[in-house]
């Protein structure tokens, strides 16, 4: 386990909980092509793939993450998302990873952490390069975050989902009233 001097009490190093995944679409079994947006969601790709060999594209399985390490021209945000739908393929320029032990770190809790503006600021600060700034895998692994017990993580995720579901419902009610 990696320890960092000066780390906040109760914070852990993310690299102790995640691992790289590099599964290629060699047999072309996955056809759903997506990208990752700065709004931290998987989105339909706008790439022209006519004549493109999709066998080198990376497969993202349900429950895995993908991020674009290039942070330049992203509006101060890092493109990172958690796949909670059917498997897809993405460009090989993305990095795919997963939580190793979901009984220690809940992937949805981790995605909430990635969604914070503080994470984007940290990622931009830790990016390096000149024309193309990169927030590489090693930097991602050094991210410090609080990792409470798994039940507390799940309660946080549940509370967040309850709030966002209520917001969505109220927006639909408002939309109906306007119509």
From TrEMBL:
Coiled coil: none annotated. Residues 68-177 form the Type I restriction modification DNA specificity domain. Keywords: DNA-binding, Restriction system. The keyword Nucleotide-binding does not apply. Gene3D superfamilies: DNA methylase specificity domains. One of its GO terms (biological process) is DNA restriction-modification system. Belongs to the type-I restriction system S methylase family. This is Type I restriction modification DNA specificity domain-containing protein.
